[in-house]
Amino acid sequence: MRFTTLSCLLLFLFAFGNATTVTAQSDPLKLKYFGAAGWEITDGTIKVLVDPYLTRIKLGTGPSISPDDTRATVEREDIFVSDTLLIDTLITDADFILVHHSHFDHLADVPYIARITGAKVVGTETTCNILRAYGIPDEQLYPVKGGEDYQFDNFSVRVIPSIHSALNAKHYIDNRTYAEVPKAPLKVSEFIEGGSLMFKARFANHDVLTMGSMNFVERELQGIETDILIAGVNRSQLGLYKYDERLLKVTNNPKIIIPTHWDNFRVPYGFPQQEIAESKLFPFRDHVKHLSPETKVIIPQHLGTIVIE
Ligand SMILES: [Zn+2]
Questions:
Q1: What is the 100 CA–ligand 1 centroid distance (Å)?
Q2: How many angstroms does the Cα of residue 101 sit away from the middle of ligand 1?
Q3: What is the spatial distance between Cα 65 and Cα 167, in angstroms, rounded to a whole number?
Q4: Whole-prediction pTM value?
Q5: Which residues, 6+ apart, have CB-to-CB distance to 54 below 8 Å?
Q6: Which residues are within 8 A (CB) of 218 and not within 5 positions of it... i.e. 6 or more apart?
């Protein structure tokens, strides 16, 4: 199973693991895309992981599952197990991990990654309690609600209250949180949302505004300027009013937008993503270009690095 995943990964790296460079007047910022809402962002001094989810479990059945994926199927009531061999090939160090919310495709690999890197983790009380369950010490954890603006050495991050994607055709609501430490290891279904956040991460010469979902609270973004927006890609089936228009307006048409969380994260790296790109990603790119012609939309490739000078 792991051999298959690694083989695909190596092939994929060979084919697509190249860098896209955008020229500007500052030190380079490097953003590597892990798929789902996962990123590694570094300015050469500080390395920040955002929702790093690499295991990409084969969850359930249905159109998101590839017949070529020979891995065992995982159900929501199964214990989540990280693909540590794969993670070890892709992540060796980090200073910070920012977690938007606690669903498995954002948090489930963070216990292992926090342990091997010793990175400081910024996330909700629920995120921190799940990490405590896996033995991550309090010194590593920064529980936040939204509104905090923390200065660290060579890095600062503003935490912005947000809301989750309107799943289930706008019937989604989940107010559960972990006010106490749950029992580890958790089932996939036990990675509850626990509230949603956005982050404004300030690097040496660039600010990056990050999203982990396809939703936002307009009043919380007012006045928050950024040159780079990592934007959740929303399509009409999620049923929000003028999502692209409102997002661009409230963020004042960022110079660079990088779409996130648009891929099928139930298949391993190297599996085709063209269909979902055509139905979600490219229409978003084209709409943004139409609404804000000055904005550069950079399409990320799995495990490819975007370099912003
Ligand atoms: Zn979620």
A1: 9
A2: 7
A3: 19
A4: 0.92
A5: 34, 35, 38, 82, 83, 86, 87, 90, 91, 109
A6: 246, 250
Compute, in angstroms, the gap from residue 15 CA to the centroid of ligand 1: 30
- Domain of 274: which CATH number? 3.60.15.10
Average pLDDT over residues 249-255: 97
Q: 1: pLDDT confidence band, cut at 50, 70 and 90?
A: very low
pLDDT of 7: 52
Task: Answer yes or no: are the C-beta atoms of 53 and 33 closer than 8 Å.
Answer: no
- Determine the Cα–Cα distance for residues 226 and 214; give it in Å rounded to an integer: 18
Higher per-residue confidence, 151 vs 21? 151
CA distances from 29 to 19, 43, 188, 191, 234 (A): 12, 5, 33, 31, 26
Q: Is the dihedral of CA 39, 144, 228, 265 positive or negative?
A: positive
Into how many domains does the chain fold? 1
Supply the DSSP symbol for 277.
Answer: I
Q: Where in the sequence is the domain holding 157, given as residue range(s)? A: 2-308
Beta partners for residue 59, in sequence order = 74
Q: Cα(193) to centroid of ligand 1, in Å?
A: 6
* Whole-angstrom Cα Rg for the chain: 18
What is the CA(293)–ligand 1 centre distance, in A?
30
- Residue 102 Cα to ligand 1 midpoint, Å, equals 7
Does 3 have pLDDT greater than 50? no
Tens digits of residue pLDDT in 135-179 = 999 999 999 999 999 999 999 999 999 999 988 888 888 999 999
The Å distance, Cα 99 to ligand 1 centre, comes to 11
Residue 67 in this model has a pLDDT that exceeds 60: yes
> Residue 211 C-alpha to ligand 1 middle, in angstroms?
11
Predicted pLDDT of residue 2: 46
Mean per-residue pLDDT over the chain, rounded? 92
